[in-house]
Write a structure and sequence with these properties.
heterotrimer, A mainly beta (about 110), B alpha+beta (about 180), C alpha+beta (about 450), B: about 180 residues, alpha+beta, Nuclear Transport Factor 2, Chain: A, 6-stranded mixed β-sheet, about 20% helix, C: about 450 residues, Naphthalene 1,2-dioxygenase Alpha Subunit, Chain A, domain 1, 4-stranded antiparallel β-sheet
Chain lengths: ~110, ~180, ~450
């Protein structure tokens, strides 16, 4: 398990999502939902799209391209045309720094 | 097709017969241009409403889906308004009515229910209105009607009518009839 | 990457066009209402070049609010942008041309084509496709394939206009002094106007010019055509326009506004005394805002067309666009305009009043439709189409000494605006570029 630094809590306001470039594991989207932080893969599972450019609606991220939705805490695909779930990462907050815990054995390069 | 009709108790066979006869008579009076007698079939509190139909996406509906009570309508009339429309038909200078428009109103799919209001029925029907003018003009309008018909001392009276057509664009220039 | 539509190639004017009208002699011919060849020229030289009304700002309140309409026969989407501006796009996917927005209005994140899942944001950018990997493998450049954007969009007092032509003069220049008159309806109160909800669409088998010209300057027909409606609504005949002590026909660049100064003549036919009272109530504040003269125009006997196909009636507050659908067919879009600041009850009365008078079920419009259709249909006859039609009333009525802006003619029972409308139309059909359109304006370009 690798601890990947995402950003500082001060860089992510409530109800915001941010894309963190990561060449090794694929870009990661980090979310702040009411002070609770989540991390998922940033690339939509349907077509080429950065989810961080989408809108957060309650606890869903709406893909900016075809408006499919994923449940942020679980990564579950919820709306057409998204049918493949999104990878999620456990998040650890150390002081004011947000980390994703990435299982390097399971993840192919993104 | 449109608004979901509330579940109401079904009227009796006799009542259905009587209400169907009422609607058929109404259609005949209109075809025979007996507008004053037609007005007498209406309740003095009549609301005669035919909203404009708007072509909207399912996730972006209006208050009633394809229409909205605050939006534009073809008819949103009370008794005074209907009387004014009849008054125009009766003017010798109603140029577009001479030669006369020839009308056929076909009423079908009549269903009658007991409305929650006292002495009132909810009657659903479909209509086809065929008009011909001049030598070769023909206009057909069809749709669904949701009526409230009340039993009064003066007999059955039409209290409310909601007229819904499927068309977002009226395929003709006017509606110079009642539906 | 800009996806703005470039100037279209303009074809040569039709030969023998000059035979179809001579406005100096006060004549036109029915041919202009029925010829397919002339109609094709109109789509290119009038509708693809002029400023066309596309929306009222009140229809597009927040980001992503849109309506769909047409400019000529071209389908367009009018959509509010994140920065508050309004853009107009062709409602056609740049991949196979399929329509991308099928609803007439709503609020959206963008537009997704049903065919191959090309997805556009509200700014028209192509943001992705279904099977996006295939495009990436072909080194497809998304930035070049956004929705095609209409060259110019601008608004005046809530009225949004657009033109396909990057070379077209500015909206301000195009409207010229007509804005001074537009204010009488569209800016007579603080906060301006709004459209009440919805649009009624109907179909006439008539040429678009017949309808537009009726509003540009033909009050003459009202006393005769609308006798039955006036008697039904008012219990008496239409006001005798020739008895009015003062009235005018004003035009500019083919636009026209004809009006009396009786304040309430038009609103009165709605038969709602509360509306008449409302007009009288706001009149002093209108006088303060726009001056005494225009306060007499709020709802007076009047009508107007902004060339080519945007028309309205002050007082009845009906607004319409005559959308061309072939030489002998129009789709008529009808809206109701009200002052934003008006009480709800007043807005509601106008909504119903406009429907009752000037709409497909309006008692006035019934008799117009019949006339306009047969003005068009008679020209089906080859011989009939070649005969002269008279449009010569008020030939020498131009007022040289007047403080009023625009080309001002004495009296509203006058065909000066109709002639100016057809003249501008004729000039456009003969011009390959805007610089070839002769300036025939004689009056003041601005109010004194």
């Amino acid at each position: 398990m690798e601890k990947v630094y995402l950003c500082k809590t001060s860089e992510l306001a409530d109800n915001q999502v941010k894309k963190i470039d990561n060449a090794t594991y694929g870009d990661i989207a980090v979310y702040n939902l009411g002070g609770q932080y989540y991390a998922t893969a940033d690339l939509c599972t349907h077509a080429t799209a950065s989810l961080a450019e989408g809108d957060i609606e309650d606890d869903m991220i709406v893909c900016p391209v075809h408006w499919g939705q994923f449940h942020i805490p679980t990564g579950k695909a919820q709306g057409f045309p998204c049918e493949i779930d999104l990878r999620t990462y456990p998040v650890e907050v150390v002081n004011d720094e947000i980390y994703a815990l990435v299982d390097s054995n399971l993840i192919a390069k993104g | 097709m449109f608004t979901k009709t509330p579940d109401l108790p079904i009227a009796s066979m006799e009542e259905l017969f009587e209400l169907s006869a009422f609607l058929h008579k109404e259609a005949r009076l209109l075809d025979e241009e007996r507008f004053e007698e037609w007005l007498e079939m209406l309740h003095e509190e009549i609301h005669y409403w035919m909203p404009g139909i708007e072509n909207r996406r399912r996730e972006n509906p209006l208050k009633e889906g394809f229409y909205d009570k605050d939006h534009m309508a073809y008819f949103d009339d009370r008794m005074r308004d209907l009387q004014r429309r009849v008054a125009r038909f009766r003017q010798p200078s109603a140029w577009a009515e001479n030669p006369a428009t020839r009308n056929v109103h076909i009423i079908s799919n009549v269903e009658a229910f007991i409305a929650p209001e006292a002495d009132t029925y909810m009657v659903c029907s479909t209509f086809t209105s065929i008009r011909s003018r001049g030598l070769d003009e023909e206009y057909v309008i069809y749709g669904r009607r949701y009526d409230r018909i009340q039993r009064t001392e003066g007999g059955l009276k039409l209290l409310k009518r909601l007229i819904l057509i499927p068309n977002a664009t009226l395929s003709c220039k006017n509606i110079n009839t009642f539906l | 990457m800009s996806n703005i539509i470039k100037t279209l190639d303009v074809t040569d004017a039709l030969p023998n066009l000059k035979k179809v009208c001579n406005l100096d002699e006060g004549r036109i011919s029915g041919e202009i209402f029925y010829s397919q060849e002339i109609y094709e020229q109109e789509l290119e030289k009038v509708f693809a070049r002029c400023w066309l009304f596309v929306a009222h700002e009140s229809q597009l309140v927040k980001t992503g609010d849109y309506i769909t309409t047409t400019m000529g026969e071209d389908e367009v989407i009018v959509v509010r942008q994140k920065n508050g501006s309004i853009k107009v796009f062709l409602n056609a996917c740049p991949h196979r041309g399929n329509k991308v927005c099928f609803s007439e209005s709503g609020s959206t994140r963008g537009f997704i084509c049903n065919y191959h899942g090309w997805s556009f944001d509200t700014a028209g950018n192509l943001v992705g496709q279904h099977e996006s990997g295939i495009y990436e493998a072909s080194e497809f450049d998304k930035s070049k394939w956004g929705l095609k954007e209409v060259a110019q969009v601008d608004s005046y007092k809530g009225l949004v206009f657009a033109t396909f032509d990057p070379e077209a003069p500015s909206l301000k220049e195009y409207l010229g002094p007509m804005t001074w008159y537009l204010d009488a309806l569209f800016d007579n109160q603080e906060g301006g106007t709004e459209f009440v909800g919805g649009c009624i669409r109907s179909t006439y088998e008539c040429n678009w010019k017949i309808a537009a010209e009726n509003f540009v300057g033909d009050i003459l027909h009202a006393g005769w055509t609308h006798d039955s409606a006036a008697r039904a609504m008012l219990g008496g005949a239409v006001a005798k326009v020739s008895d009015f002590p003062e009235s005018y026909s004003v035009n500019w660049n083919g636009h026209g506004y004809e009006f009396a100064l009786d304040t309430v003549g038009n609103v009165a036919v709605l038969g709602e005394s509360k509306l008449n009272r409302y007009v009288h109530t706001i009149k002093p504040s209108v006088a303060e805002r726009l001056g005494e003269f225009r306060s007499n125009m709020i709802a007076s006997v009047s009508s107007a067309t902004i060339f080519p196909n945007f028309s309205f009636l002050p007082g009845q507050n009906t607004v319409r666009v005559w959308q061309p659908r072939g030489p002998n067919k129009i789709e008529l879009f009808t809206w109701v305009v009200v002052n934003k600041s008006a009480p709800e009850e007043i807005k509601e009365m106008w909504r119903k009043g406009a429907m009752m008078t000037f709409s497909p079920t309006g008692v006035f419009e019934m008799d117009d439709g019949e006339n306009w259709e047969y003005c068009t249909k008679t020209a089906k006859g080859k011989v009939t189409a070649k005969q002269d039609l008279f449009v010569g009333l008020g030939m020498d009525t131009l007022l040289e000494e007047t403080p009023l802006p625009g080309n001002v003619y004495e009296g509203q029972l006058n065909e000066a605006n109709s002639r100016a409308f057809y003249q501008y139309w004729f000039d456009l059909l003969n011009a390959k570029s805007w610089t070839e359109v002769p300036n025939r304006n004689k009056g003041k370009a601005e109010a004194e």
